[in-house]
Amino acid sequence: MNEVTKAALIRPAPLGQSQWELIAHEFCKRRLALAASLAIVTLATISVFAPFLANDRPIYYFGFNRFEYQESVRTLRGVISQLINTRSKESLVVSKVTELLQTAGRQVQLMSSELRDENSQQLRRLGERLQQSALKTDRSESITELTDLQRELRSAFVGHDENLLTRSRWPAIASLVWSDVALILANSLALFWPIGNWVYRRSNAGKEGGLKLRWNLAILLGIPLIGGLTWWCCVPQRVDRTNYKLAVLRSDDSDKKAAVVFHSVLWPPIPFGVDENDLADKTRAPAWYPQKPSVGVVKPTSRWNGAHWLGTDELGRDILCRMIWGGRISLSVGMVAVAIYVSIGIVVGSLAGYFRGVCDLIVSRIIEVVICFPAFFLILTIVALIGPGLLNIMIVIGLTGWTGIARLVRSEFLRLVDQDFVLASRALGYSPLRIIFRHVLPNAMAPVLVSATFGIAGAILTESALSFLGLGITVPTPSWGGILADGRQALLRAPWLIHFPGLAIFITITSYNLVGEALRDAADPRLRGSR
Predict the structure, then answer these.
(1) Orientation of helix 496-523 relative to helix 319-355, angle to 10°
(2) Is the distance from CB of 89 to CB of 143 less than 8 angstroms?
(3) Higher confidence at residue 234 or residue 238?
(4) In what order do the strands lie in the sheet with 60-65?
(5) Domain contains 75
(6) Does 306 reside within a domain?
(7) Range of 217's domain?
(8) In angstroms, how far is CA 349 from the centroid of its own chain?
(9) Dihedral, CA of residue 115, residue 117, residue 120 and residue 122, to nearest 10
(10) Whole-number mean pLDDT of the chain?
């Protein structure tokens, strides 16, 4: 074979590309890894948008909520009674009164949003008078005015739920917490970021290249954090106990005593809650699942019973709903635990590899001591001591898995620390921290990313094993391992209870392993151009 043919067979890397761009270019050549990445993104997206996919609250409805108004009236009456009892004491406890007034203000706000303009203004004036009366220095006058206000509330607003304000409502959105908002924003940005980056590169502003990595990270991390913080500050968290499934559509006589009345309603695709159970419809098999004639022949009792796509468990809870919400727990445990031990491993390995000498000797001995203990049994021991729980599982896995990352980063630093660009940085007088984190660490992150990808799969498997043994996520929070443990008790009569969570764990771990292998091959310069 002549030199021209050899040169034609060798596919040179595109000029002007960074190390990460070369890795991404090589990674995209592996179709199996791309399919695994798509599976991971799909599972993560479904888990993040769980409030809109599997929920017993409507996404949207146009109507009124009589139950919520009545609960607010009952709570406000109780608060006024507590204020009267508090003021009956000789001394004024300002902190207690202030706390009760804050609760009363929230109830007045909720009630006024349900009433029409005239009644809403009257209720707000009552709330202002309540604030003034509760803080009066004259105890007897304060008690008298609070009693009058309680009587006025009972006469003017207790039976005023027949003509509530009809408006558009979003119960699923109102039930979100700040972490839900942050995750939704982060997932949406990650999904549409390639499209936005491509548009930016094609625009006049991006002809010289896309946004720098620091700006990409700032946008991808900053916007979700700002959105979550804004939601936490502006939207008060409250428990919605309304049973929307007992609501009725608007008719002439059917809405006289209904808790919620719909003019129109949009339900999620899976209209069930995580803990919504129906003992009359327990261990129902999916309609498409091959089963014996004696299994899952429960007669439907309502229009909701036929919507269990993956069947129900022994308490009548929808399996698909619990699978979607359980994916949130399992995937978040993997991501957060790996983030913890990668951060620890990078710091420890960087110090040992850069300074070497005594520092390297001490760190290496600590790593060897930690490695001596079997990881899973060490996790079992720690969890048994501190107790199960989501946060405990994340911290324990993070604190016991950093040794592999530390050894990997240490070896990369030992390889790079004597390179010319590091010697040039020292000659320019840069500080050790700047050399470590600005010059050496970016060149050592490729194998760390590969190891972290494998670590996510291992963390998910560890959490599933702990939940299966009863030491993982506590009830009522679902996780794939917990669903698998619940299905073990009904293995013979309801085998689908272990098939679906087991399949989800298998697909997730296999996908992460395929992505990790592809990243490992793409990061190796010797394997580039082999596909």
Answers:
(1) 30
(2) no
(3) 234
(4) 167-169, 60-65, 260-266, 248-249
(5) yes
(6) no
(7) 177-234
(8) 30
(9) -140
(10) 80
What is the rounded CA–CA span in Å between residue 136 and residue 7?
92
Integer Cα distance of 27 and 45 in angstroms: 22
- Please give the angle made by the CA atoms of 345, 350 and 353, to the nearest 5 degrees: 120
pLDDT (0 to 100) of residue 195: 76
Q: What is d(CA 34, CA 519) in angstroms, rounded to the nearest whole number?
A: 11
Q: How many CB atoms are located within 10 Å of the residue 345 CB?
A: 26
| 326 Cβ contact list (under 8 Å, min separation 6) | 478, 479, 480, 482, 483, 501
What is the CB neighbour count within 10 angstroms for residue 121?
A: 12
End-of-domain residue from the set 113, 143, 164: 164
- In this predicted model, what pLDDT tens digit does every residue of 151-165 receive, in sequence order? 888 887 776 566 788
Residue 528 φ/ψ, nearest 5 degrees: -70, 140
Most confident of 48-57, 84-93, 212-221, 461-470: 48-57
* Element containing residue 306 per DSSP (H, E): none
Nearest C-alpha neighbor of 114 from the set 159, 170, 167, 75: 167
The reported pTM is: 0.81
CATH assignment at residue 392: 1.10.3720.10
Considering the domain architecture, whether residues 369 and 411 belong to the same structural domain is answered as yes
Domain end residue (candidates: 196, 216, 234) = 234
Q: Name the strand (E) or helix (H) holding 119.
A: helix 117-134
Residues 341, 482, single domain; the answer is yes
**Predicted local confidence at residue 92, as pLDDT:** 61
For residue 459, tell me if it sits in a domain. yes
Residue 116: which residues within 8 A CB-CB, separation 6 or more?
163, 165
pLDDT tens readout for residues 501-515: 889 989 999 998 888
Q: Are strands 60-65 and 248-249 parallel, antiparallel or unpaired?
A: unpaired
- CA dist 177 and 50 (Å) reads 13
Answer whether residue 8 is part of any domain: no
